[in-house]
Every structure is written in structure tokens, then in C-alpha cells.
Amino acid sequence: MDGTRRARPFDAGRPVRRVEKPAIDxxxxxxxxxxxxxxxxxxxxxxxxxxxxxxxxxxSGQFSWLLSGILLATRIISAYVRRAGFVDVLGxxxxxxxxxxxxxxLDVLANEIIVxxxxxxxxxxxxxxxxxxxxxxxxxxxxxARYIVLFDPLDxxxxxxxxxxxxxxxSIQQRREDVKAHSVMEHILQPGxxxxxxxxxxxxxxxxxxxxxxxxxxxxxxDPSIGAYRLCQENVKMPEHGNLYSINEAYRRQFPxxxxxxxxxxxxxxxxxxxxxxxxxxxxxxxxxxxxGGVFLYPPTQKAPQGKLRLLxxxxxxxxxxxxxxxxxxxGAQRIxxxxxxxxxxxxxxxxxSTADVDRVLQFWHQ
Length: 367
Ligand code: AHM
Ligand code: MG
Fold this sequence. Notes:
By secondary structure, this protein is an alpha+beta fold. The protein is built from 9 helices and 17 strands.
């Protein structure tokens, strides 16, 4: 047998039974509904595959394998978030992380889920998490694994217990080819413009994921009924200007004078029409800014002269997404993506959003 199906010889003695329609769906309605449903689904895996085929036909599939590991992890985290209250994931662990912040149970769980989902993807050499003191070296620099994954497993920890949106942010880099082995840090501490991909997931009223590989930003919603991320918007564009600003104004007194002037202006008659939104989860504040436009600010304060947000796990990936969507991201002095990191948990001021709104903030800051 060669495995191909062959027609059986015609048996002239038997009556031929003609089947006009599938017996299971005599009216044909069900078949039509199924077609509508399946033809409108584009899963994230399919999307990545199709774009890879058209834009990088020589790609080995290694990258999509890696990305699918991250997405699996976020589906598991999403499932825990949705069951918080029934399963024991709320509250603090009682310990502090390397940055002196209280660690929540869900922070630890999310970190472990990502680490275990990525740990067996052979092409990842290094994993760097906001929750870990040190990078995890999975393969030594001279081995094949060329990707470095950096992530904030659960952004917006202070919102976990009060049912407000939280999220996961990730950044993907490649090992440097110009430095042969040596220090792991040389591979990790690369400027953001070298990222090969970045993305985030918001566990909000629905679970939404956005990613970029440098050719636009694409957005998906997790369909819990089938457990798959379904495409909802391709090539997302951030409005050039918005009417929302987002900042923790409680720190106003500690902000640079230029930022204080901006805050006066944004509430003035001249600016008229701005509203304020501040969730306190960067990933959720950014998601809104991406869709509606406007600006998010976490400037330096007297207490935190470098701001609070982390360059490698928060600012860099979101800056890549912002730029890919036509927006901008700066630390006040330079483009976020041009910053050369000097340490793992480095912090940075962050002004991110619509180009016109980011420019306006900079005008006040530097006048
Ligand atoms: P986290 O990653 O530990 O949750 O901390 C970062 C969070 C951001 O999500 C958010 O923008 C910021 O901290 C809020 O800080 P603040 O409470 O000072 O306004
Ligand atoms: Mg965070």
C-alpha cells in the first residue's frame, strides 16, 4: 500500500445511495454557521506564521516557537487571574524583591509560570525577570541558543488584590555577535533599538495581547471558549494626539519644575479638553494610551531621581511598541530606545504616548 486512497471498483449489482446533503445538517444552517465562525478566526500562531512566510521565508521557526512559549505562559497566568479568590493567589508573600518592593503571591506564580514555559524552549539562552536578582543562564554564550527574553511577569502588583487590570510585559533580544562569549551582561545590556520583538498582555475586562516584531503592532484577544488568542486589530496606530494625560500627580511637588508647568498647562483654559486617567498599572495605562492617544508620564522625583520604571522590562518593550504604532517614548533627555543600559534593574523616567503630546511635555520640561 502506498497510502493513497483508491476508488473501489464499481459494483454494478448494488443500488447507489446518493447523499445530497450531510445527514447531520439537513437544512444546511449549521454548516453555514461553522464556516462563518472558522473563516473569521486568525489565531496569533497563524498570524505569526503567515507573516513569517511572507516576510522572512528563510526563517527557521525558532522565533515563533519561543513566542508561543510566552503566549502559553500568559494563558496560564490569565487562567489564575480569572480564578483569583477561589485559588490562593491573592496577597503578599511577606518577602521583598531585590528592589525592596513587597512581593505578591501572584508575582511569584507568574514568574514561575513563565520560567517553566520557556525553560524547555531550546533556543533561549538567557532569561531575565524583574522578579529575579540575577539572570537565569540556560545555555552558555558559546552555545546555539541565541535569544534573550526579558520580562516583567506581573506588572501593576499593587492592583492585584483589588481586581484592577494588571499585565505581563516582554522583550526579546538576540545575543550579540560582536562579543564572543565573555560576560553574560554584555549580551543583556543592549539598547532597546536592538530588540527583535516586544509585547504585553493585559489581564483586564478581557485578556488582550499586543506584539511587534518590528513591522507594526498587532493586537489579539484571548477567547476563553477556545483558549486561543484571536486577531482583533492588525497594524494598530496610536493617534497623533489625544486628550488624556496619565501621571501620579500626588508626587507633583517632587517633579522637575518643567513637569509642574506642564501639569498647570494641561489643566488650563488654553489646553482645554484634557482628562486625567491613572490606573497605576503601567501596562494598562499604556494600553489605553496606545488605543486612545495622549501621554503617560513617570518623571523623576526627588525621592526617585531615575523614576520608578525599569528600562529593560518595562520602558524598552513599551517604547518599541509605541514607536511601531507611530508614537514616541523618551526619558526627557533622549529616546528610550537609544539608552544603553548599565545595570539589570536600571530605572528610567518615562514619557510615552502620542507624538504631539510627548513633544508638548518636552517643550515645558526644557523651557
Ligand atoms: P510593578 O512592576 O512592581 O508592579 O511596579 C511598577 C508599577 C507600574 O505598573 C505603575 O505605572 C507604577 O508602578 C505605579 O507607581 P506609583 O504607585 O508610584 O504611581
Ligand atoms: Mg512592572
